[in-house]
Fold:
Amino acid sequence: MLFILVGPGGVGKNALMGHVMANMPDLRQLPTATTRNPRESEQHGVQHLFISVDDFRQMIANDELLEHQEVHPGKFYGVPRATVEDAIQQKRDLIADIEFKGATILRAAYPENAQAVFIAPPSLEALEVRMRERGDSQTDIDNRFDRLPSEMFYAPTCDHVIVNDNFESACAELLAIIQVMRGEVPAVSFPKYAVEYSVEVWPVMGTEAILPVTCRDLPLESALRDGETPDMAAQRLLEAMWPQSIDVANLYYDAPNGLPSVDFGLDEAMQTYHIRYRYAYRLEPQILDADSFRRVPLAEIG
Structure:
């Protein structure tokens, strides 16, 4: 079985991997190929295969990588095909920290042999603190924050979600997931937090938000249904609420008025973790029926 940890940079995936491997001697890390420099605690062939850009491109040319991405500018990562297939054939378990695009490819290639575990930050502020504590530069932090909406988008598609608000409890959750999937222990009650997902859709035209008169408030909102991605939920919501036929090409995972595309946080009292995805439905300039729509200047929306 391949256990794939995904989530934003700085959320603690490598620390969690180190802990579970220390407690499961037969669990090994999948060494991914990368062109970045090793950190102090890393060894070639253990956490990663540290190679040059030229060598990485040669691996691509030889079809030696199951997938590869430029995760950050000038920093390439890829999954060696032979390592994964040898582990599956020999029934050895591997654990890996792989970015969300690569995780999607691996799960599609080995649907019976891969489990995706999303490691979620308790808050944006906590994530930034962690990155600064581990010495990330401001440029690296900015680049990781630019990727954050895309990375958080992947959470609803994962098999499990762990909120890393407390390292010890997050480690216990990850250990329990692996033990259950291996059949070592019966199913246990996890996770610590129930995860809730919702979408907002903001119909906009120019500098105005457009609201059907049948809707009381902006934005249009809905919880995700089982099996839905945020894109699917946003389209379903818009089709249900909009009085005209819609053009999905104008539906963007991007919020107007300076709002973040995604926000997330804990409600510790309710033991829930909520992720909200925001979309803009950008209408072409047109004359709208005043009996069917209301206009609200975006500047008036707090």
Observations:
- The longest strand covers residues 194-205.
- The chain is about 30% helix and 30% strand.
